């Protein structure tokens, strides 16, 4: 997700949240016959609303708002659901003979295989994604609940050093997620 898309999402969720809180608070005050709910209801002029609904320009404006809402909604949906993945990167140390392109996802899987050799690891999942304009390799490590964390962290740190040694000059980040499996009942 890019910084711009994240900002748009946060602003939209913030505005909709404030609107929902305001409408819910007004409805609650009105339902409880609180004087503040009645006072807020007094600001709503039904004659003004009927005047807007009866105006000749209302259908055209409503149609434009609906079309703009559909376009913006579809754009937000596509932008948030689009896969922000990458597979190959060009090494910064390419020479005159050409550019060296590496399959980062295969290197990430090799790192996962190296980590999986640890005795208490039950599984490793890797993913390559763009996160806020950065190339990020995420490795999720699933381990048994009896794992010795120090030895697991040492294995992950060694795999990370090997990964970065294999791709010198590539501008990417690595992220390791540790998930301990649930303790078996009994």
Automatic annotation (TrEMBL):
The keyword Transmembrane helix applies. The chain crosses the membrane at residues 55-78. It comes from the Bacteria. Keywords: Membrane, Transmembrane, Transmembrane helix. This is Alkaline shock response membrane anchor protein AmaP. It comes from Corynebacterium guangdongense.
């Amino acid at each position: 997700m890019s910084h711009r898309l994240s900002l748009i999402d946060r602003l939209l969720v913030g505005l909709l949240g404030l609107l929902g809180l305001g409408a819910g608070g007004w409805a609650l005050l009105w339902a409880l016959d609180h004087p503040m709910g009645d006072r807020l209801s007094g600001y709503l002029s039904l004659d003004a609303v009927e005047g807007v609904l009866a105006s000749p320009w209302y259908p055209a404006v409503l149609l434009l708002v609906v079309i703009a809402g559909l376009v913006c909604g579809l754009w937000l949906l596509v932008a948030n659901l689009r896969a922000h993945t990458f597979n190959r990167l060009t090494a910064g140390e390419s020479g005159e003979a050409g550019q060296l392109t590496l399959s980062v996802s295969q290197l990430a899987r090799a790192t996962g295989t190296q980590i999986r050799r640890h005795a208490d690891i039950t599984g490793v999942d890797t993913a390559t994604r763009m996160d806020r304009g950065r190339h990020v390799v995420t490795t999720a490590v699933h381990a048994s609940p009896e794992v010795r964390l120090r030895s697991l962290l040492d294995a992950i740190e060694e795999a990370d050093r090997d990964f970065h040694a294999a791709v010198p000059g590539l501008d990417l980040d690595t992220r390791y997620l540790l998930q301990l499996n649930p303790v078996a009942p009994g």
